[in-house]
Amino acid sequence: MLDYTQFDQVFGSLNPFPFDKSWSQKIESHRRKFDGALFFDRVLGALNLGQAAKSYPPKNENALRQLHQQVCDASNVAMHHKLSILYYLLLDLDERRVEQQEQQQQQQQQRRPSHIDSLAEDFAARAAVPQKYSIFMKGLWLMDAGAFESALEYLTHPSLVPDFADDIIVALARHASSSKNGPTLPLAYYHAVQPILRTSQAQEALFDALAQSSISEALAFARARPEFVHQQLFRRLVLGALDPARPHHDHGDELASLLLDGDEERWLVETLSSGPEAKRLRGAKDTLLMRRIARGEVGSAGEKGKGDWAVVLEGFRAGSGGRA
């Protein structure tokens, strides 16, 4: 069985050192993208190995040896966690070997790539890394690399406990959602894993993704929260549905036809009529008008004087994106 404390047994020959300046710059770029902390950094921090994170990415072989030694010497870290960290580093090494091979083939004008055995998977087998840990670390490694769709294939594995779920939701909502695909990935992760989100940042990120997909589903999510959070999320739902700066701003008609309880009805009116954001929401008055009609308050709407039904029709057009 492999002795993970022996650097050469883990990493083999590193001459020349594979991690060059451009690779380090790429890692640092990814780190900045995630607000200064890769998922690898978060793992090290959770294991009280924050000092080791300062050695990543390693600039030379001595730095990598130091990182390896810091991991192996950590007396308060379980062996399977140490093995998981080394597995992550070997995934980096695998990627660099593939990149270097592709560069050589381009220079030699070779068309067919030759197969490269995975050092990470070989290490996992020889060091008996528990499968659920290698699956999880591969998912986090893919997250750090920005390969979000591939990452979910690992992070939604049924054997995993949803660690770092808040961070994963926020990262997917911020970086994996696009105008083309919408909030598909954060919602896919949430529905597959069903994590308990503990931070307001993660709850709001998920809520915005839900609202972009379905107003009614977002409302159900808000109703399952405590009253104070329920009110905050409901206001966020209303503002997001009408704010043209957000991707899901065309849900005014759906918002106007929701079945709301008394508190929600009051929150809706307050948000759209007297809230600080009401003036900048172009469809606020139209949505309130449609809401009154949906509640059967046609008489009130009809008391506006001449041209009242033209105003009503215009309200429907504005709230439904011109479809009325």
UniProtKB/TrEMBL annotation:
Pfam families, A to Z: ELYS (PF13934)
GO CC, any one term: nucleus
Domain of life of the source: Eukaryota
Record keywords: Nucleus
Residue ranges constituting the ELYS-like domain according to the UniProt record: 38-274
Subcellular localization(s) per the UniProt record: Nucleus
Major subcellular location class: nucleus
Name this protein carries in UniProt: ELYS-like domain-containing protein
Organism: Eutypa lata (strain UCR-EL1) (Grapevine dieback disease fungus)
